[in-house]
Amino acid sequence: MKKLVAEFIGTLWLVLGGCGSAVLAGAFPELGIGFVGVSIAFGLTVLTMAYAIGHISGCHLNPAVSVGLWIGGRFDKKDLLPYIAAQVLGGIAGAGILYLIASGKEGFVLGNFAANGFGEHSIGGYGMTAALVTEIVMTFMFLIVILGATHPKAPAGFGGLAIGLALTLIHLISIPVTQTSVNPARSTSQALFVGDWALGQLWLFWLAPIVGAALAGLVYKWMAGDKDKGQKIKDKGQRIKDKG
After folding, report:
1. Are 31 and 112 contacting, i.e. CB atoms less than 8 angstroms apart?
2. pLDDT digits over 65-109, tens only?
3. Are 30 and 152 in contact (CB under 8 A)?
4. How far apart are the C-alpha atoms of 16 and 113, rounded to whole Å?
5. Structural domains in the chain?
6. Each residue's pLDDT tens digit, 188-237
7. Residues 132, 208: contact at Cβ < 8 Å?
8. DSSP code of 155?
9. Interior CA angle at 169 toward 163 and 173, to 5°?
10. Angle (CA) 22 24 26, round 5°
């Protein structure tokens, strides 16, 4: 339960910090933080939570990350659905808080509420194929960084920094295409408030990140020669047996 609460809080912070920067400060007249500021904000949410809750839950904050870590042999299957549920609920809570803040301004108009989209709902007017490729590739690279930065042989203590910077870079690349998802929980939270087209296009922002994450899990597991937990236990048992 402590792990699930940590994932709930962490995903809430990701949505409130990342989407909040886009909704409240991204295009603020003359002083807006723009694409660069929003990208940094998303990276900072993951960076700060990595050190705040990483030792409790692993700081996934993202159903695609949980799937990628499971495929890569770093996460127990029995925890997968509870983690995803906690992440989605945390994202919705973050979006709810953001809505309460944003709607407190006179003349408030919901707009796209930082929801992810393609076609006419893409900032740069990119179509479905471009959005699909972007989300698969960006999530794939995100998971490669996560799996590498958290590998037992990686330099200790720097995983959160590498992962936060990777998410910043991903946003710098892909905000004009899809407003950057790489996270089904983040996409779901905003789509529920926007409704209409955002819910109609939400399928892509579940499918593409999970496909990209699963591919990364398989590739990194092969590339790094990682074995899953079950195999490691079997190997350890065999070594003990051989010594006996």
Report:
1. no
2. 999 999 999 999 999 999 999 999 999 999 999 999 999 988 888
3. no
4. 12
5. 2-234 (1.20.1080.10)
6. 999 999 999 999 999 999 999 999 999 999 999 998 886 655 445 445 44
7. yes
8. P
9. 145
10. 40
